[in-house]
């Protein structure tokens, strides 16, 4: 029975969970100093890294793994703060886009230097460039399996082959999903 508890797959999940929760605590602290929640940051970073700084609301929900009502509430808050606006989708009247405003971009320019410093201090500086590249490849493989919609709408694709390019050029999150 002890073999069951010593399974390296359990260890891998435990280490991933511990690293994730530890980094999330560091990110939350840094973002709170700017009056921003980790969920608001994730929405803004995904918009800022998307073509034309916009995503359909449904794609934004898929990328963040929030429900459609959850993403609506977050976008409502960001819209009240002037950081995001909604635009109707000309191709589909049932859809709308969340679009980052100039004020949203300015806010992210204030927040990002400190956020990048937290990432560097607690995460990337602890890995060699080779380890980081291997980790990124491994995380993409797992992410693509468990969250196939994680890059939805990240690029105006012409086909499935564009999905990986969307992630590399702009929509892999630099903060954990909440």
From TrEMBL:
GO biological process: response to stress
Region (Disordered): 151-178
Source species, domain of life: Bacteria
Matches recorded under InterPro entries: HTH_MarR-typ (IPR000835), MarR/SlyA-like (IPR039422), WH-like_DNA-bd_sf (IPR036388), WH_DNA-bd_sf (IPR036390)
Segments forming domain HTH marR-type: 6-144
SUPFAM superfamilies: Winged helix' DNA-binding domain
Molecular function GO labels: DNA-binding transcription factor activity
SMART domains: HTH_MARR
Name of the featured protein: MarR family transcriptional regulator
Natural source organism: Planosporangium mesophilum
């Amino acid at each position: 029975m002890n073999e069951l508890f010593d399974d390296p797959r359990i260890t891998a999940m435990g280490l991933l969970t511990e690293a994730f929760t530890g980094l999330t605590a560091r990110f939350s602290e840094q973002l709170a100093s700017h009056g921003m929640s980790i969920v608001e940051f994730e929405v803004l970073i995904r918009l800022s890294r998307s073509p034309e700084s916009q995503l359909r609301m449904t794609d934004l929900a898929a990328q963040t793994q929030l429900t459609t009502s959850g993403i609506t509430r977050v976008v409502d808050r960001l819209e009240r703060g002037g950081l995001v606006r909604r635009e109707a989708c000309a191709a589909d009247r049932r859809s709308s886009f969340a679009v980052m405003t100039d004020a949203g971009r300015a806010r992210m320019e204030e927040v990002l230097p400190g956020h990048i410093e937290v990432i560097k201090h607690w995460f990337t500086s602890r890995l060699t460039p080779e380890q980081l590249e291997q980790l990124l490849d491994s995380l993409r493989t797992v992410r693509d399996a468990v969250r196939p919609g994680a890059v939805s709408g990240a690029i105006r694709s012409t086909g499935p082959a564009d999905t990986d390019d969307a992630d590399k050029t702009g929509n892999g999150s630099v903060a954990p999903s909440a």
